Structures are given as C-alpha cells and as structure tokens.
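Hello again, I could really use a second opinion on something today. I've been puzzling over a protein and I'd love to understand its fold better. I'm sending you its amino acid sequence along with the backbone structure tokens. It would help a lot if you went through both lines with me. I've dropped the whole record in just underneath, so have a look.
***
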Amino acid sequence: MLNRFQTLLYSLLLLFVFPAFSQQVPPSPSNQTRLVVVVNVEQMRTDYISRYWSHFQQGGFRRLMLDGAVCSNAAMELHIQKNTTGVPTLFTGVYPDRHGIVNDSWYDRLRQKEIDALEDDYYITVGSDSREGQLSAANLLSPTIGDVLKVSTNKASKVFSVALNSNSAVFSAGHAADGAYWMDELTGNMISSSYYVDQFPDWVRQFNDKKFADFYIERDWSLLLPSSSYTESLADDYLLEPGYYGKWNTFPYNMSKLKKQAGSYKILKTTPFGNMMVKDFALALIESEQLGMDSTPDLLAVNFSSMDYEQGAFSPSSVEMQDLYLRLDRNIEHLLNFLDQKVGRDKYVMVLTSACASSYPVNYLKEEFNMPVGFVAPESMVALLKSFLNISYGQGDWVEFVSDQQIYLNRDLIEKRDLNLADMQAKAASFINQFEGVKLALPAVGFEQGDYVKSQLARISSSFNFKRSGDVLFALEEGWQPEFKYKRTIYNDNSRIPMIWFGQGIKRGSTLRRVDAVDLVPTLLHLLGYEIPSHCIGQIVNEVVD
C-alpha cells in the first residue's frame, strides 16, 4: 500500500515529469516482454568475462555473450565513481547533475549539515529491529525506469529490487517500487524500509527463517576448481595483497573467523555466498510475487557484489576475484534457467551491466609495471588549503565540509566578510592544482555558468548539481588514488562498464559504437513499447533492437 509521500509523488510525476506521456503501439501479445531483469554486478570490469572465459559454463556469461547483444564500448562518465552515484544514473537515464545523487553524502548549506543520500528517519526498518532500513529514495530527484513503468501502466507493473547493499537496492527500485530488499548486516536477514513495504511479506519472512546467512558463515570459502586452474590470476599468496584485515590472504577462508573479526554479517558481501543469497532471494521473489505472469511488463533489479569493500585488499587480478566470478557465472546460469521455465524463453529481457568498474591498486601498478602513479593525501591537502586561505583572507573556518573530490567553502563567512565567492573558489582551485597527482581542480562558478559542458571537463559537469555539489571540484591523474589516515574508501577512475542485452526483441551480435550508461533506460522503454519521457538524456541503442 502506498504511503502519503508516494501518493503525492505520483501526482507530481504525472503533472510535471510526464506531461504528455502516452504509450507507443505496444508489441503484439505473442511477442510481448513480460519481465525485464536488470543485473547490476557492482564493481565489474569489462575484461573479467574475456579473462575467465575458458572456465565459464555454457549457460551463464557464455550464453549471454553468444546469444545476446554486446555493447563492447559502454561507459559511465561520472566525476565520483561509486555505486551510490552509478546506480541512480543507470536506472534514471540521467547523470547526477539532474538526479542529484552526487555522492554518498553532501553538505546542505541551507541547513548547515551533512546529508546522507539515503538516510530518512521518517521511515522504519521492516524485517528487523535494526536501523538499517531507515532509508528512502526521497533525495533522488529523477524517476527511475521502474517509476516510469508504474506511471505508464497505472500501477499495474510490478517493480522490485534485491541487493546486498542498501544504496543499490533503493536507487535501482526508485520511488514507487513494490519492494526493495537488501541484507541487514547485523542479522543477516533480508530487510526493507517502510518507504516501500507496509507489512513484511510472509514469503520474505519464510526466506529469512531458513537462516541462509548463518548457513554460509558456518562454511569455509574454498576454491571452486583445482588451484592449478587459476592461471589467469596472481599467486594466491601474492605479497601486495594485504587480504582480510591484513591477516588472511590465502584459501581457504574460515567464514566464522572472518565474521567474528568483522563483528557482523557484512563479510558475506565480499564472498560468493552473498551473491548466492541475492540469487536465491531473486528466485523466491519472482515466484512469490508472480513476476512476468501477465501481459503487463514487470521489472526486477538484481544487484550482485564483487568483493565490496575488499577490492583493494585483493585487487582485480586476485584468485579471490576469479573464484567469485566463476561462482557468479553459475548463479547467472541458474537465474536464466529459472526465467526460461517460469516466465518463458521469449517473454523476458535481461541486461547485465555495472554501475561502477573497479581500478587496479596503486602499489600493484607501481611495483609490477613501473607506472607513474601514487597516492594523494586529501586530509593533508585540505589542511594546507585552510592555512593558505587563512593567510590570504584572514583567520576563519573557510572550509566547511570535504567529501571525496569536493570541497565546500564557508559561504556564510565569505558573505559576512564581504568577499567575492567566485574569486575565493578560483584561488582555492588554483592552490589544489599544485598538488602532485591532481589532474585538475575547478571552481564551481564555471559549472554554474555552463563553461565546461562541451569541453573535456564534461564528466565533472554532468555530475555537478547546483545545490549539492562543492565549491571546488577536482579530479586525480589516471592511476592515482586518495589515501586517508582514518577512513577506508573505494576510489575508481575506470569509466568502462559491461553492457550485455539478452532475450525477447534483442538482436544477436555486438557493437563497438560508444554507448553511454544513460542509454539503458530509453532502450528498455523502446523495447517495451513505451514512450521515452523527456527527462531522459540517453539514446536508443538501435544495434541491440531486433
């Protein structure tokens, strides 16, 4: 049942976002897609499939590649590349300048506080007693493809998402979904938010009663194949891989020991077992919610994880990463076979892609290949910037907030001192540009005036939101990464993403044409026979349409 916020949102969408929304000539009943499954493999590099090809089975990645349409040159050009910014970009068909999710959090100058992209105390957790479900998509400023389907079909389409991480679940579901589910790190259960679900479904409760998380924690993570088969990866005991907690970096892994060290079930997100939970939950969801069982198309977003926050501990070339993908291959095969039998081979479309692709660690590139890369220390850089601004403008708390590659200046103080904001932005950006590893730093005023839209700086421009982005935005040189003293972060500068189309209405083959991540939404809507709303900036990928 929809709450008051969602009912109001529907009205606004109908009035403003879809002013002349109408349906195209729909496909004939015998040629109609009943279910769209978007598989987002977090942090998936495009070269994983070719690298591990010889070890894949016939029905997983191989089936998608050989019987589907492959966009070999797909990209997502984000300033801050992570799942939190990438997932809403994939599912809305616009970049952060429009959908507003510029980072995990940003500084709200009006309220003078940090705003989390997801946190929303108005809603409660459904499925556990933790606070893990006090989230919503209220900060997402654009409708997702699921929202478009809901409006277009007068709520007849069913829209769901499943993930290990809450950001992927919420932003792939959107505002009007029937359910978004993710793993509660404290209990290991699949949970949701009252933003989506008023009453916890019995089938989800029954799924949780099976205690899959505990079952996996009691197992060891051992190699799927003989160790001699992993020739595409570095040695299991590779020196530059710190491993779990800097202690364990060789197979097998004792899951209960890792859970004890982590203090929660979060460790499952770094192993194939987490993906198995997502797959099994997705199958139960399709069965229980009867997705794809009528002529109105439904949508399911399935978000798998690739090592999650342990990317830097093992690197893209690790045995751990290869084993995870060999097992993921079997999960995808199981999912495809289930869709064949439950929905029908000619009644569904699957798109496999990624909201963010991982980068190689600095030490690996430097030690093994002599690459001119290194680390940037943002905390030291900002400390020196503060001193510089004190010397230039007098004592004051000139820097109000820092978030990844964004610096927020104290605009109230600048106004109080009767200083020119644009001049201070430019001076701060010029100072940041002097640091080794910084490719460029730019003042926000240039983005506000549209100076960078058609230049090589378009990547940052498309991620710049007037109300949420910082006063100084900077990018690092290729291969360079930030290193913090007191916090851990994932940094990516790899804009290439996989994009494979499969199923009803898809033309078998491949294209080398440059395809943008925002092309996914308009192409899917075109395949389903719905008009593409004006807010979408992407184009139809004609090469994949049969």
